[in-house]
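Researcher: Sequence recovery benchmark, item below. Answer with residues only.
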């Protein structure tokens, strides 16, 4: 089943508790943490994640676009995140960090920027619960989907299948009704959607519609046959 993770980067930051409740049918709530160093934008941190965790029953999927995730990522687990994603480009010791996140009780996820290939990290995949392929340059919401990432999604799915892993494959950036089917067909099964959800008149209905689209596309995808 395809999972839809609305990104609060596209929500009204003055009404985060209400915006979280508006998508309570979602699988996860995607929380973009940016430090204005790793990416040229500044968003929110540990205190807001703690507050969000108290405001919603939807589990939090924290995407850390920050320097020194080895130091900071464990604090997001302690703040209540059910899944924590660090960027491999910023991590000093990705295997150790993934193991620490898991040991603290959260799902460990690793993100790749568009120009970062998956192949050098094949041996790390068993240490992870999810891999995130950015389909835009990280830092800002509302960007156009990069079609050139589709082959990378396919190659990643092939590596996951090759090793027989139960590894979720997430895409983030420009995911909408017009792009989600291509992502699902290529091998993604977790979809971060920002403006496609929060820009809709009924965010909860948008989540359901995107999930149905992705699930239908997955059912006929070559990679999913035999699953």
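Model:
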């Amino acid at each position: 089943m395809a999972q839809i993770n609305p990104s609060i980067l596209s929500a009204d930051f003055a009404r985060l508790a209400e915006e979280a409740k508006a998508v309570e049918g979602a699988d996860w709530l995607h929380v973009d943490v940016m430090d204005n160093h790793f990416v040229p934008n500044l968003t929110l941190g540990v205190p807001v994640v703690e507050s969000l965790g108290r405001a919603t029953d939807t589990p939090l999927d924290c995407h850390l676009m920050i320097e020194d995730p080895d130091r900071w990522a464990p604090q997001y687990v302690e703040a209540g995140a059910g899944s924590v994603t660090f960027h491999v480009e910023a991590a000093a010791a990705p295997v150790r960090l993934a193991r620490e996140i898991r040991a603290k009780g959260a799902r460990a996820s690793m993100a790749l920027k568009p120009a970062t290939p998956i192949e050098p990290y094949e041996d790390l995949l068993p240490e992870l619960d999810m891999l995130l392929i950015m389909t835009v340059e990280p830092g800002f919401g509302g960007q156009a989907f990069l079609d050139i990432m589709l082959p990378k999604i396919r190659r990643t799915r092939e590596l996951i299948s090759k090793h027989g892993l139960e590894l979720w494959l997430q895409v983030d950036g420009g995911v909408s009704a017009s792009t989600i089917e291509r992502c699902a067909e290529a091998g993604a099964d977790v979809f971060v959607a920002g403006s496609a959800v929060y820009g809709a008149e009924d965010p909860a209905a948008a989540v359901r519609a995107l999930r149905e689209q992705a699930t239908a596309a997955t059912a006929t995808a070559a990679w999913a046959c035999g699953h």
